[in-house]
């Protein structure tokens, strides 16, 4: 067995670990989506990185948490009807979301230390992985920064901070897929040209922007209104898209405009992937690494269907969470496609 083969095989546990972390991030995303949709995110009004792992255990502790929640605008304006039993339900989802984030840190740092001791990680891989650990920690900070925006004046979190939190999670998820795929041994077939990377890169950027746009839709509860398709408020291009001044505010604060932009970007992505697949098929090169394009195309259609169903049914939790998760999976498939092209091209 060659030395290169031995090194490659020694990284197999590392690849399994990283893929497992990516799956765990996706789980946190799902729980985070439920937390958002059940309006649970502001139920814990303090950030205790260590002691916060343990939930209230006595009635006195529960009443103390409930009293803290009663001090924020969300309770007085929206949820003043809540009993302690109701509060416990929303507390659970936020607590679970935070605990999973802490568990992710442990699932990262403990195997990372073991692999370092075993000398499985070359320096060229160890430092980028440590950077991902720091990104995960920063994501925790962003989560609290997001929650803190809804504790004094707003009745929900800032859509700007929600978008930052979600996009950081997307970056972490994508990196946890890219790194192990890039170091996977074995040949990848397919003729790779420079423009193929540009096509995939633009698609990845479009999907990433769409994930951010979805965060603004969620942050403004924009999906709760205009629940018709293909018309929106009775028209293909509704009135009122630019009513706010200055104009840029409409893109981030006008629920009508935010939902409209999310729709239009989805149409653009469908057209883009359709043309990309058609060009590859016409050239007879929809094989090898480029087989990812067909999978991505199917995923895009499934995602559009989920988005339309979520809208028409006024955002049921199950469909909304699936819609968000599939967005991450779609971007993940593009990252795997790029990694496979790099392997095929030996870049």
From TrEMBL:
Residue stretches spanning the membrane: 16-38, 99-117, 129-147, 159-179, 199-220, 264-281, 293-315, 321-339
The protein's topology relative to the membrane is: Multi-pass membrane protein
Give one GO term, molecular function aspect.
oxidoreductase activity, acting on NAD(P)H, heme protein as acceptor
Q: Which gene encodes it?
A: ctaA
What GO biological process terms are annotated to this protein in UniProt? heme A biosynthetic process
Keywords on this record?
A: Cell membrane, Heme biosynthesis, Iron, Membrane, Metal-binding, Oxidoreductase, Transmembrane, Transmembrane helix
* Primary localisation category: membrane
Its UniProt entry gives the catalysed reaction(s) as: Fe(II)-heme o + 2 A + H2O = Fe(II)-heme a + 2 AH2
Q: How does it assemble?
A: Interacts with CtaB.
Which positions bind heme? 262, 323
Name this polypeptide is given: Heme A synthase
Please list the cofactors this protein needs.
heme b
Q: Which organism is it from?
A: Devosia geojensis
Functional note: Catalyzes the conversion of heme O to heme A by two successive hydroxylations of the methyl group at C8. The first hydroxylation forms heme I, the second hydroxylation results in an unstable dihydroxymethyl group, which spontaneously dehydrates, resulting in the formyl group of heme A.
Annotated pathway, please?
Porphyrin-containing compound metabolism; heme A biosynthesis; heme A from heme O: step 1/1
Q: What is its EC number?
A: 1.17.99.9
Q: Would I find Ribonucleoprotein among this entry's keywords?
A: no
Family indicated by similarity: Belongs to the COX15/CtaA family. Type 2 subfamily.
Write down any Gene Ontology CC term.
Answer: plasma membrane
List locations, semicolon-separated: Cell membrane; Membrane
């Amino acid at each position: 067995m060659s030395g290169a083969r031995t090194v490659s095989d020694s990284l197999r546990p590392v690849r399994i670990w990283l893929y497992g972390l990516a799956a765990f991030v996706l789980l946190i995303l799902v729980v985070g989506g439920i937390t958002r949709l059940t309006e649970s995110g502001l139920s814990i009004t303090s950030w205790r990185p260590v002691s916060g792992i343990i939930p209230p255990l006595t009635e006195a502790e529960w009443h103390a948490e409930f009293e803290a929640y009663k001090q924020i605008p969300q309770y007085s304006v929206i949820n003043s009807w809540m009993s302690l039993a109701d509060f416990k339900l929303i507390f659970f989802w936020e607590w679970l979301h935070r605990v999973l984030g802490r568990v992710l840190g442990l699932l990262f740092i403990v195997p990372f230390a073991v692999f370092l001791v075993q000398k499985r990680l070359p320096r060229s891989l160890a430092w980028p992985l440590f950077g991902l650990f720091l990104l995960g920690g920063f994501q925790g900070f962003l989560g609290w920064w997001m929650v803190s925006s809804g504790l004094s004046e707003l009745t929900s979190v800032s859509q700007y901070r929600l978008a930052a939190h979600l996009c950081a999670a997307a970056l972490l998820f994508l990196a946890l897929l890219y790194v192990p795929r890039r170091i996977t041994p074995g040949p990848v077939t397919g003729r790779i040209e420079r423009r193929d990377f540009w096509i995939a890169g633009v698609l990845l950027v479009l999907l990433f922007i769409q994930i951010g746009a979805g965060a603004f839709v969620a942050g403004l509860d924009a999906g709760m209104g205009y629940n018709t398709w293909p018309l929106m408020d009775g028209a293909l291009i509704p009135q009122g898209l630019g009513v706010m001044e200055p104009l840029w505010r409409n893109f981030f604060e006008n629920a009508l405009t935010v939902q409209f932009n999310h729709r239009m970007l989805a149409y653009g992505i469908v057209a883009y992937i359709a043309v990309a697949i058609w060009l590859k098929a016409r050239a007879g090169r929809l094989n090898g690494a480029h087989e990812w394009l067909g999978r991505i195309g199917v995923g895009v259609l499934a995602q559009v269907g989920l988005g339309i169903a979520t809208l028409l049914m006024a955002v049921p939790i199950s469909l909304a969470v699936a819609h968000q998760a599939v967005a991450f999976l779609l971007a993940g498939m593009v990252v795997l496609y790029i990694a496979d092209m790099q392997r095929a091209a030996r870049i």
